[in-house]
Amino acid sequence: MHWSSGSSSKTLKGDALCVIIAETELEGGKQAGEWTGKINLLAQAGLFAGKLNQTYVLPAEGQPGPAAVILAGSGSALLGAEELRVIAAQAARAALRLKAARLIIRIPDSLSLLTAIGAEAAGQALAEGLVLGAYRRTHYKREQPVYTGLESAVFHLERNAVEAESKEWTQGIVRGKAFAEATNLARNLTNLPGNLLTPSELAVAAIEVAERHGFPAEVLDELEIEQKGMGGLLAVGKGSAHPPRMIVIRYQGTARWENVTAIVGKGITFDTGGISLKRAPGMEEMISDMGGAAAVLGVMEALGILRPQINVVMLIPSAENMPAANAFKPGDIVTSLSGRTIEILNTDAEGRVVLADALTYAREWGAERIIDVATLTGAVLSILGDIATGAVTNDEGMMEAFRAASIRSGERIWQLPAYPEFRELLRSEVADLRNTAGRYGGAATAGLFIGEFADGLPWIHLDIAGTAFLPKERGVNPKGATGVMVRTLLEYLLHLSPGEEAGAADEVEG
Ligand code: BES
Ligand code: ZN
Ligand code: MN
Q: Disulfide-capable partner of 347 in 69, 274, 368, 507 (CB 3.0 to 4.6 Å)?
């Protein structure tokens, strides 16, 4: 994807042209150049009002160039990054419906007046929205469609961009494209059915990412997991014919391996609940129980493209949670890599058990701070629905930086309290910890269980059980896997690099 400016968009080749129109422009009865008359008729008929999320397609009769014109509403408010993402995502979706391969998006001169975020952030947001909106889930029907999706998109600036602005735009678009393609990689992995994505297959996918970018990687098989003493991951993986894996990838962006951030993703390729079996309705959604793993792998993909001056180690504890003759059971006591023992009360609380070992292992890889991402609890859905990701932390300063990142990305997070009383609920009579803490406060207690294994390192836990997989399309996200947290993690990590100032004073939540 690239962008251009200046020359008439009529000379650009495309199957569809998108024109962005604000509500206020229609109210005034002006604007939109050659389509003004038609658009005003549509407005009078109540068919297109320029509202955000609204699109309308006009055939470009008899005109040279694109066959269809997509009108995309931008609403009436001052445009922030999220609005720009949504406009571009809707343009991409309209193009998909038209089976267009090449899309031109005309960026009106007035748009720069309507946004307060600057050329780089605007370019990034538009590119993100476009690539996120153009996502199509793979299907496995016998008949494969002829149309293969959007191939190219051009942002066409109406006015001649000045030199400095042009550089910012380009940088923004490169970054936005990388962020969104990484998110789409995470979505693809998360949408894969459990029979096609076992722990060893997830390891293959991870090695592919590592090899593409020349990153050192390590995959521990079930024997090595046992030898190493990762009793939690071993216990959860025991009941499956597809044995567990511990996957590690390293990205080194500075001369020395220092100031290392660990990103850890829950990689349960399917969660039946194990012996504490889940009920049948909706169980198919548990193909997304490796959404955290997919997110951290997506992050590595983008780091490979953008190469920031930071150091990141990615860890994925992966297993399939099955009920079986040799599965772990309620009442079992397992010894984690940290030496802490865990009393299993419910085999469906398996995520925290595999993450425990991964957090301990992260320290062995030199981690100085840890972020874990996990489809961890149904309880987080009771609190935040599928609107926001739940966060738990032991370090308010780190959380503040992460919150700022989430405001830039537009991916909502909401912090849950880490009260010591919650931690006490995790006490066991016979082991160091128990893996469930009773009925109430389940999202916080689950997070705090994992936090024990950070062993004092600054740590943030992200519970994406509600946000990783949506029942219907919303904003930039499709139905199904969202790849949530890829972009927020990247925003956070890239701000750790020396080239980026950490200042976030001018950011406001939308
Ligand atoms: N993977 C589930 C959590 C989940 C629920 C993800 C809904 C996505 C949508 C997790 O392993 C789980 O089963 N958690 C249990 C914990 C309980 C047994 C303490 C839950 O939330 O019910
Ligand atoms: Zn699970
Ligand atoms: Mn479970």
A: 274
